[in-house]
Design brief:
CATH superfamily of chain A: Glutaredoxin
Oligomer: heterodimer
Strand order of the largest sheet of chain A: 2-1-3-4
CATH topology of one domain in chain B: Multidrug-efflux Transporter Regulator, Chain: A, Domain 2
Number of helices of chain B: 6
Helix content of chain A: 40-55%
CATH class of chain A: Alpha Beta
Number of strands of chain A: 4
CATH architecture of chain A: 3-Layer(aba) Sandwich
Largest sheet of chain B: 3 strands, antiparallel
Number of helices of chain A: 3
Distance between the termini of chain B: 58 Å
CATH class of one domain in chain B: Mainly Alpha
Strand content of chain A: 15-25%
Number of strands of chain B: 3
Number of domains of chain A: 1
Order of helices and strands of chain A: EHEHEEH
Shape of chain B: elongated
CATH architecture of one domain in chain B: Orthogonal Bundle
Chain lengths: 85, 154
């Protein structure tokens, strides 16, 4: 599963939250591909995803969290998706 | 919400008419800014007329520039409050500018989609001499399934 964190450079909240989210994602399901995208380098892609506020989190190419989830929320979402597969 | 202060301890030098003329804006717009908490007079005369300090003109220009960049008045108030927040830094403003850029890009995409949809409708209506009852543009707009009238399921 591919998890993409879309962030604005210099975002203090993103940096503070990202390691806990990444750990939660990797612990929840196997084979998580964790990607961090600087929105200024991926603006078209962010628009395509429908990102309007930052930071945001996409899973498998779809915007799932328009604001950062808690690690528990992310874990739950990934487990639900793994179960659906 | 109290208006965002234009500056500290300014001498009242401008009437609303003079500020409006200098800022190339209407007096009604200035009153609206006041009601939205963006700009307040520094004083009122005994008769109740608004009086503004020199800083007010900078504030008016700030608001107009920000509107031209697509910011709403509520967002502009947020930007002005950031300027007065000691813990805020340029990154906070930058983040808002980036988000506005994303929102504008999304709007542009939506409008491009609308434009393409109109192009298709215009192309379908090549015979402009048809009676209006047979107009394919009107027929397509009446379709409820959004398929522009192409190959409707029968």
């Amino acid at each position: 599963m591919k998890v993409e964190l879309i962030y604005a450079p210099g975002c203090v909240d993103c940096m503070a939250a990202k390691s806990a989210l990444q750990s939660a994602a990797e612990a929840a399901v196997g084979g998580v591909e964790w990607i961090e995208l600087n929105v200024l380098e991926a603006l078209d892609y962010a628009v395509e995803l429908g990102v309007l506020t930052l930071p945001a989190l996409a899973i498998d190419g779809r915007l799932v969290f328009a604001a950062l989830p808690t690690p528990a929320q992310l874990r739950e979402e990934l487990l639900r998706r793994a179960d659906d597969d | 919400m109290p208006p965002v202060s234009a500056s500290r301890e300014q001498a009242p030098v401008l009437t609303i008419g003079k500020l409006a003329a200098a800022g190339e804006i209407s007096p009604d717009a200035l009153r609206y800014y006041e009601s939205e908490g963006l700009l307040a007079p520094v004083a009122r005369t005994e008769s109740g007329y608004r009086q503004y300090g020199e800083e007010a003109l900078r504030r008016v220009r700030f608001i107009k520039h920000a509107q031209a960049c697509g910011f709403t008045l509520a967002e502009i108030r947020d930007l002005l409050q950031l300027r007065q927040t000691d813990s805020a830094c340029c990154n906070d403003v930058r983040q808002r500018a980036i988000e506005k850029r994303l929102q504008l890009a999304a709007k542009i995409r939506t409008m491009q989609t609308m434009s393409a949809a109109l192009d298709r409708l215009i192309a379908e209506c090549a015979d402009s001499s048809q009676p209006v009852d047979d107009c394919p543009i009107l027929a397509a707009l009446e379709q409820v399934n959004g398929d522009n009238g192409k190959n409707p399921a029968r």
